[in-house]
Write a structure and sequence with these properties.
By secondary structure, this protein is mainly alpha-helical. A two-stranded antiparallel sheet has the order 1-2. Helix 2 packs across helix 3.
Amino acid sequence: MSALERERITCALSAWRGEPGMCQWCNAEIDSPRRRTWCSDTCGRAWQRHHIWRFARAAAKRRAKYYCQRPGCTAQRRDCEVNHKAARNGGGYGPGCHHHLDPDQNGLGGLEVLCRAHHREITTAQAKERAALRRAARLALTADATTDSLSSTER
């Protein structure tokens, strides 16, 4: 079983639980000999809309009517970008539940449409937070190494 199939089984939005011959979105029996994954184009498009970045991004923009979702923002429609509410932190944009339009019960996903300025503001804050965590980890390692070297010289 592939990693993608495992994710489809565990996806909170999908009804499929891994049975062969069943639709991997709604879990209905696939009765067409030409279909293997989805029982219909509707199910295939529903999965794409929640799991493939370019489809999820387009769906999020349509849902927000192409405007920034921050209250009071008057940015032009063409300046809008889609942000993952839970930062990807280098996780990439491959298929997955992290593209759900709204967070599921597991907390995965959640997309919001923001203007470039608000998106930059959020991304910069996330980068600063990651840098602070790296600095703290580096300081902790240095402090541990210093403590270890002091205790070994006392022996």
